[in-house]
Amino acid sequence: MTRLSLAAPLSVIVLAALAWVASAWLCYANWRRAPHRRTAAWLESLRFVLITLLAVTLFRPEFVKTLQRTETPEIAILADASDSMKTRDATLTNAIVSRRDWLDAQLARRFWKPLLAKARVSVEPFSPPSTNAAAINGTDLNLALDNTLHRYRNLKAVVLLTDGDWNSGQSPVAAATRYREQGIPVFAVPVGRETPLPDLILDSVSAPAYGLLGEDIAVSFKVVSHLAREVKTYVAITDSFGEAARKDITIPPQGEVEDAVLWSPRQSGNVTATVSLPVEPDEVIAANNQRSFQMAVRQDKLKVLVVDSLPRWEYRYLRNALARDPGVALSCLLWLPDLGAGGGTDYIQAFPDSKESLASYDVVFLGDVGIGQGEMTDQEAELLKGLVEQQGSGLVFVPGRRGRQSTLLNSPLKDLFPVELDPSKPAGLGSENESQLMLTSTGKHHWLTRFDADEDRNDELWKQLPGFFWSASVEKSRPGSEVLAVHGSLRNQWGRLPLLVTRRAGNGKVLFLGTDSAWRWRRGVEDKFHYRFWGQVVRWMAHQRHLSEKQGMRLSYSPETPQAGDTVYLQCTVLDQSGFPVDKGPVTGKIISPLGQTERLDFAQVEGGWGVFKSSFIAREPGAYKLDTASEPYARHLTTDLVVSRPEIEKEGQPVNAPILSEIAALTGGAVFAMSDLDKMASQISLLPNPKPIELRVRLWSNPWWGGSILLLLSVYWIGRKWAGMM
């Protein structure tokens, strides 16, 4: 059956009708006044037709065709098959079972039997775990509802049996809105508990992609507690030799702890280690108390250059610490005032004056030196800036009492400083009383300042370290810097003076230590803290440069431990056969995904002449990627294995997401039922009326032919007026 309907509000229809009547009277009046009534009659009639069509358009006329449904009404039961349904928090005949087992039992007893007399019932699982090892499993409620809506032609109602753990795809509210438009209710049954199970969860573990043999590596972790009591436990790292590290932690009731445990690898190669915490007696799930990670352990030597002007105590003990470090290849440059460069083992006679001679250094220490007076030149400062920003090397500022570093504020290195110095006090600030370095909240958690794995004991150690009597004249830290430690007694209008500060500079890192007394940390403990601090500084700064390298080519990537879906940014440094940074490409790459698919990469050159090229790709699936990088004109090839982890979005032990299920049910005109009320829900669905007839609407007022006809008549009308000489 087809009928004509007016969709406009009554007020619009009345106003349009009044306007149409007024227009008819004006057309008649114009015809009466016209000298050529026959021509005017045609034009005014045409104008009246146009006005009539416009008025009808305002009525929003529609042809409505009603189609009676002849098929049997359909009811779809959507059963959640995702991994989160493995959670054991459902009750079945006085026994605790998993959500999946409870759901299988309800489907097996066919609770929908009362509905079969008036409708056809279909049961469909959704979001099952994929058999593809590279796939990311998740629960997509929106997709499940949308597919059901498009697949069934005579849908009467939908029953949603799920824990509501929506973690993939669009919001299911979007699909619920479309159900509401078609008058199809959704009845939801939250399967599981609304409160978390009593449990301790090792929620995440993060470790670097590589480490050096014997190096202390910070492995960060996050532990979540769903226990109603305080838990004192520990996190341990176990490798092939047994337990290698342990960290005591205290977790508040229903709280969480994020920290790191220091682990020193005991073998080189690809090492697999496991992070775990003991199972508490009142835990329900023991399987989520451990996680494993892989790391490439190597025995690299890091090249370090130390530059200073006087053999002060800070320089002497810093040089000794680095010279005795088996993982460091040390070079020293000592500009003695009026005497020239110093000599001896590991000494060089001049600052590297070319990119190829400077590019090999992973970390450069600048002591009490500056521009001019036989020390650095602006050209050398520009080279050092490029080394940090483009090559990803580290730069450490260790000023002294001569105040020579104030001259660097007028050099290319000025933008690399993590702090702002007071130019009126280049010689710094002296004190008769000993002052302490005081860790900030950031410094207490930073790897550079870790002398003990326990955070509280580490803070106490810093408080017990011998202090200093001189510091640089620092005003404040620069935006984007991280302040790790401040002056224990001096402050200004910006707060305590920042003395241990880090900052990113391009691809590299910069550290500022505003005191010359770190060597005093040896008092009473010899080299324990002094050597450890500088060893950690060197390794932290050089880490990014050694992710993957081969003679003449070095590749770094970020993030270092990517997850599926992340964009991985690549930086490749290429040197020619003579060790010079290449001045042009091409540099190409090929990525082989875990599924064997190949993607070609083109690297774009970074300006500056440091032989740096950049590219990126999207890691679409988890697993082991193989990245081949090559620069054929220079015969450079590098193969890198990159492991992309799978984001764990389906987690056991999580409470049901009742709010989203309530919102879906309320929006569609359905209801939410408890797990024990399935039979009651079936009875209510059986009382629902059959789906309404289908209405097909043809909107005349928005039809292009309708608008085109009005435009055509309007053109004829204006042409007629011009022809009749009425314009």
Q: What is the overall number of helices? A: 14
In order across it, which strands form the biggest sheet?
Answer: 19-18-17-20-21-29-28-27-24
Number of strands: 39
Find the structural class using helix and strand composition: alpha+beta
Mean pLDDT: 86
- Gross morphology is extended
Strand content: 25-35%
* Biggest pleated-sheet summary: 9 strands, mixed
Q: Calculate Rg over CA atoms.
A: 38 Å
Distance between the termini: 48 Å
Helix content: 10-25%
Low-confidence stretches: none
Describe the overall structure.
- Strands 19-18-17-20-21-29-28-27-24 form a nine-stranded mixed beta sheet. The chain has a five-stranded mixed beta sheet with strand order 10-16-15-12-13, with no helix packed on it. Strands 30-31-32-36-35 form a five-stranded antiparallel beta sheet, with no helix packed on it.
- A hairpin with a 6-residue loop joins strand 35 and strand 36.
- It is built from 14 helices and 39 strands.
- The protein is an alpha+beta fold and 727 residues long.
Give a short summary of the structure:
With 727 residues, the protein is an alpha+beta fold. It contains 14 helices and 39 strands.
Topology record:
Elements: E1 2-6, H1 10-33, H2 37-58, E2 61-67, E3 74-80, E4 88-92, E5 95-98, H3 99-108, E6 120-126, H4 141-151, E7 155-162, H5 172-181, E8 186-190, E9 200-206, E10 210-212, E11 217-225, E12 231-239, E13 242-251, E14 256-263, E15 269-276, E16 290-298, E17 302-308, H6 313-323, E18 328-336, E19 340-341, H7 355-358, E20 363-366, H8 378-389, E21 394-397, E22 419-421, E23 429-435, E24 437-439, H9 441-445, H10 455-464, E25 468-471, E26 474-477, E27 482-492, E28 495-505, E29 508-513, H11 528-542, E30 548-550, E31 553-558, E32 567-574, E33 588-592, E34 598-602, E35 604-605, E36 612-618, E37 623-631, E38 636-644, H12 658-668, H13 678-686, E39 694-699, H14 704-723
Parallel strand pairs: 3-6, 3-7, 7-8, 10-16, 17-18, 17-20, 20-21, 21-29
Antiparallel strand pairs: 1-2, 2-39, 4-5, 9-11, 11-14, 12-13, 12-15, 15-16, 18-19, 22-26, 23-25, 24-27, 27-28, 28-29, 30-31, 31-32, 32-36, 33-34, 33-37, 35-36, 37-38
Helix pairs in contact: 1-2, 2-14, 4-5, 5-12
